[in-house]
């Protein structure tokens, strides 16, 4: 890898980390960067998992410095998502990703519009109860499949789910980055076993993503929920466009 490619990868990682630590969607920057550098789609997805995991871990610890996460509230859905991610990662070489991307683009736009409008009565729903029901675990499992299969905007999808169930923006992100970190561990183990990760690209990308994620999380904590909702809608629109391309 030459110097220009390394600089390009570092910039993409920093930008992806900044966005991903706030509302997810970091892979919408880092995945295209890996594809631009010549990786096959499956290799790009696998190589990007390390960066995605680092972003979520950095964001989790940064948010937890202010808001302590109750692990018991999200452990069950996180484990359900992990199982789904293992399934999704194993499918990544065989399933038609184009059809899935089109479906996810439609769902992201619909969910983004819902979050923007957010009816008042939704705020009375308690996510910490619903997310641990069989229905909530099934949703976490399904999202986990997508997360292991593609990973792009998976944190955003969990944020949208928790906002729908009544969480405020900061708590929704805090819980979502934890769930996403857990499911990405499952996907990472599968990709390591399959030998599809290009480590010479994965590590520079991950290190740059860590720095961007730290700055992004600090920005979110300083500017608060209104900023996060604006960024969330932008991320959803960007995600839909990327998924359709």
Describe the structure.
This protein has 245 residues and is mostly helical. It is built from 10 helices and no strands. The protein has helices at residues 3-23, 27-36, 41-64, 71-91, 97-117, 127-130, 134-149, 154-164, 169-194, 199-244. The chain is globular. Mean pLDDT is 79; it is low at 119-124.
Task: Give the SSE layout.
Blueprint lengths: L2 H21 L3 H10 L4 H24 L6 H21 L5 H21 L9 H4 L3 H16 L4 H11 L4 H26 L4 H46 L1
Essential attributes:
mainly alpha, 245 residues, 10 helices, globular, single chain
Question: Care to give the gist of this entry?
Answer:
The chain has 245 residues and is mostly helical. It is built from ten helices and no strands.
Oligomeric grouping of the chains: single chain
Mean pLDDT: 79
Rg result: 16 Å
Low-confidence runs:
119-124
| SS-based class | mainly alpha
**Total count of helical runs of at least 4 residues:** 10
User: What percentage of residues falls in helices of 4 or more residues?
Assistant: over 70%
* Shape by Cα distribution: globular
Order of helices and strands: HHHHHHHHHH
The overall number of domains is 1
Instruction: Tell me the fraction of residues in β-strands, as a range.
Output: under 5%
